[in-house]
Amino acid sequence: MTSTRVLVLNSGSSSLKYQLLDMSDGARLAVGLVERIGEENSRLKHEPLTGGGELREEFGPIADHDAALKAVAAELSKDKLGLDSPELAAIGHRVVHGGQTFTQPTVIDDEVLAEIERLIPVAPLHNPANLTGIRTAQALRPDLPQVAVFDTAFHTTMPESAARYAIDVKTADEHRIRRYGFHGTSHAYVSRKTAELLGKDPSEVNVIVLHLGNGASASAVRGGVCVDTSMGLTPLEGLVMGTRSGDLDPAVIFHLMRVGGMSADEIDNLLNKKSGLIGLCGDNDMREIRRRVDEGDQEAQLAFDVYIHRLKKYIGAYSAVLGRVDAIAFTAGVGENAAPVREAAVAGLEELGLAVDGELNSVRSDEPRLVSPEYARVAVAVVPTDEELEIATQTYALVRTPHA
Ligand code: ADP
Questions:
Q1: What gap in Å lies between CA 252 and CA 262, rounded to an integer?
Q2: Phi–psi pair at 219, nearest 5 degrees
Q3: Which helix H or strand E contains 5, and what residues bound it?
C-alpha cells in the first residue's frame, strides 16, 4: 500500500492543532484541536471530513501534550484514520524558529532536535512547545519520518541589507540578533498561488504579500524569493496587529522602564498582548472594529486609521524594494475577509499602479481571485492561505523523495 497521508501538527504552549491530509489529492480527512492543555477544562474538538462522521467535542482534564496526542489518536481511530495506519507517510510539524540554520523543511533527527533547542533563546515562547509536540509524536510513532517545517525558512533568502539591524555587529552576532521574519509558510504559499492566478511562473513575478490575521506581516517576494519581510527578531516588528504594536521607537521601552517604572516582562506583555488594535480601541477583531466605525465610534476609527496608515507605508516601502510590482496579495483572516481594509490600503496609491474594483472587492469567496480593475498596472489579489496544506506538501515531498 502506498502511504500518502500526512498528519500536520501545530503545537502551542497549551494547545495542539492538527489536520490529517491525503496527499494523493490534497484532501483533508480530519481537522481538530486540543485547547487548554494542562488545565481542568481542556477541550478537544475533532471533525472528520470523510466517511460521514460527525464533529465531536469533549471537555475534561488533559494533562499534557502526550495525553493530548493520544486523545487525538483515539478520535482518529474511531473514524478509521488511526495513526497506526500504514497509510500514514509522515508527520509534519510547524516549527516557529529555525534561525539561520534551517532554510528548508528538514527530516528530524537528534541533531535537528538539538539545534531547535539551541534556538530557544530567540523563540522562548514557541520552540519549547514545538519540541514537546515533536517528542510526543516521536514517542507515539518512533518508526515514522517526522519533518520540521519552519516559519522562518522562506525568509532566509533575505539579503544582509534587509536582515541586519544597524547595531554593533559583534553584539548582534553574539546574541543572534537579526531579522528572521515569520509566517514564512503562508508567504511562500500565497506568493506561489498569486503567480498561478496570474498564469505565470513564480520566477517571473514580483509580489507583495500582506498576511493580515491576528498576527500580521508583509513580505516582498522577487521572482519567488523573499527579499524583505516586516517581522524581525520576533513577531513584534512591523505592521499593527490584533494585540501587538508592530514598529515603534525602541526608546519607548527605555522610557517605560525609566519613567514608567515598568519591568522588561511588563513591557513585553504590554507590547505583545495589549497593544495594536486592542490597545488603540479595546477590540482586536476587525469585524467588531468596522461595526463600531460604521456607528461613528472615534476610537475604533483611530485604530482603523493607524492600522491602514502602517499598511500603506509597507506597501510603499516594498514597492521601492522590489522596483517593479506585479501583484499585491491579501491573505489571512482580515486580508481574506475585510473588503474595507483592502480598499483603504490601496486608496490613493494610483501612482503606484494600484486600485481595487468596488464590485469585485465586495464579492465573498474562498477562491483565489483578482479584485483590481482591468486597467490597473498592478494586480490586487485575494488569496486564501493554507499553511497546513503547505506544511503537508513540503513534508510529503521530502519523505517521498529518497534522500542521501
Ligand atoms: P490567526 O491565525 O493569526 O489567529 P486569522 O488569520 O484566523 O488569525 O485571522 C483572525 C482575524 O481575522 C480575526 O481577529 C478578525 O480580526 C479577522 N476576521 C475574520 N473574519 C473576518 C471578517 N469576516 N471580516 C473582517 N475581519 C475578519
A1: 11
A2: -140, 150
A3: strand 5-11
Which one from 22, 79, 151, 283 is the annotated catalytic residue? 151
**Residue having the nearest C-alpha atom to atom 27 of ligand 1:** 334
Centre of ligand 1 to C-alpha 242, Å, is 9
Residue 310 in this model has a pLDDT that exceeds 90: yes
* pTM tops 0.90: yes
Q: What angle do CA 281, 287, 290 make, to 5 degrees?
A: 60
**Atom nearest to 214 CA in ligand 1:** 3
Q: Is the CB of 210 under 6 A from ligand 1?
A: no
Q: What is the per-residue pLDDT across 225-270, written as a single tens digit (0 to 9) for each? A: 999 999 999 999 999 999 999 999 999 999 999 999 999 999 999 9
Nearest in space to 314 (alpha carbons), one of 304, 300, 328: 328
Local confidence band at 14 (pLDDT 50, 70, 90 cut-offs): confident
Domains belonging to the chain, first-starting first, are 5-150 (3.30.420.40), 200-387 (3.30.420.40)
pLDDT tens string 174-205:
999 999 999 999 999 999 999 999 999 999 99
CA 213 to ligand 1 center in whole angstroms: 5
